[in-house]
Amino acid sequence: MANDSDNKAGLYRRALLTGLWRENPTFRLLIGMCPPLAVTTAVKPALTMGLSVIFVLVCSNLVTSLMRNLLKSHLRIIMFTLNIATFVTICDLFLRAYAPRMSEILGAYVPLIIVNCIIIFRAEVCASKSGPIVSILDGIGTGSGFTIALCILAGIREVLATGCFFDIRVMPNGFVPWLAMRMPVGAFVTLGLLLGLANVMTMKKES
Amino acid sequence: MLRIKHFVEQSWLLLVSSFCFGLLIAVASAALSPTIEVNKATKLNELVKTLLPKARRFVALDTEIEIKLAGGKKERARVYKALSEAGDCVGWSFSAGGQGFADKIELVVAVDGTFEKIAGFNVLVCNETPGFGDQIKSSYYRDQFTGAPAERLSLVKAGDSKKIDSEIVAITGATVSSEAVVQIINTFLVQIRDQVKAKGLVGNGK
């Protein structure tokens, strides 16, 4: 009995923590790479995008998990898409109502969450095979891993491009902003360096 | 009969889910639409004030202005008269929309008090391709409209963008979006101008 609850606790912990680092979508799996390149010019939009992805991921994982025994294999992709599109639409409406400025900055990238492969990937790999609690924890874990990656990337770019972090001045007055960091080249260079760092850290850990 | 049974067996979950998800979106939309509309109106006011800095208040026209759209559809335009502190007419503004490259584009357009020159336009809603189509918001493109004659405009692929006339130079890599903006302004501006002038609302001072 105790063994059973230990197993469950381990399962829940794994579902929550795996997405943070070992299966981090941005740094380890390299999936859903459009937002890390496109919405990381500042931390605020990156955080908004991350929270939106967490919301969609948790809701779509929960619904997929609840209907997993009814899913027909040849209809599952269309069911996932329908499910994801619904929550993305709700999230988009919510942002337009309560965070219009962020909605404007993120523009088409919020509706584009529908085609973000992280969400359909988690629905296929985890939610369609697991119970609701594991699916929710997996959504929170993977979404948080994605959000942390976006915020790290955005933090570096915002500081170097504007001298500010979260709109608060952090660099000395003589600092000359690196304008390239605001442009796509800044996203590619920062992401490449962070991926290199992630690989070095993983190799050290493994050795 | 067997085929229908097979169809229902295979697709009942899809049909039920589509209905439930549709209902969920409808409820969310109904709950959030009023707030979204208020946000839009606030933004519209702010944007128009930047185009007509002398304007202190805006009065909606009582008379109906009907716009004939492409494909024979008709739309009622919301036209506002911009008044100065003293109550003089300093311009006109209206919102206009049409199909862009990716989605619908919504603009707010302002013209001077005599409906002779465009005071400029601002973008209310735009989901055009980031980095390309969304450059319709850039000053390079928008500044070409400020001071242009309030008549039918035309889009050219190359030219002097600093020359203010009825020729608008397209954004490189975003010709469809540039064309869409010109089309939207042409459709609304000319019809509103003609109807407002025909009703004797222009040039009557206050």
Task: Give a description of the structure.
The complex is a heterodimer of chains A (207) and B (206). Chain A is mainly α and 207 residues long. Chain A contains 8 helices and 2 strands; from the N terminus they run H-H-H-H-H-H-H-E-E-H. Chain A has a two-stranded antiparallel sheet. In chain A, strand 1 and strand 2 form a beta hairpin. The radius of gyration of chain A is 18 Å and the shape is globular. The model of chain A has no long low-confidence stretch (mean pLDDT 92). Chain B has 206 residues and is of the alpha+beta class. Chain B has 3 helices and 9 strands. In chain B, the strands form 3 sheets. Chain B has a 5-stranded antiparallel β-sheet, sandwiched between helices. The relative contact order of chain B is 0.13. The model of chain B has no long low-confidence stretch (mean pLDDT 88). Chains A and B meet through helix 4 of A and helix 1 of B.
Summarize the structure.
The complex is a heterodimer of chains A (207) and B (206). Chain A has 207 residues and is mainly α.
Keywords:
heterodimer; A: 207 residues; mainly alpha; two-stranded antiparallel ribbon; 8 helices; B: 206 residues; alpha+beta; 5-stranded antiparallel β-sheet; 3 helices; 9 strands; globular
Q: Which H/E pattern describes the elements of chain A?
A: HHHHHHHEEH
Mean pLDDT of chain B: 88
User: Main β-sheet of chain B, in a few words?
Assistant: 5 strands, antiparallel
Oligomer: heterodimer
Low-confidence runs of chain A: none
Largest interface pair:
A-B, 25 and 26 residues
- The tally of strands of chain A reads 2
Strand order of the largest sheet of chain A: 1-2
> What is the total number of structural domains of chain A?
1
By helix and strand content of chain A, what is the structural category? mainly alpha
How many H/I helical runs of chain A?
8
Number of helices of chain B: 3
Helical proportion of chain B, percent range: 25-40%
Shape descriptor of chain B: globular
Side-by-side strand order of the widest sheet of chain B: 1-4-5-6-7
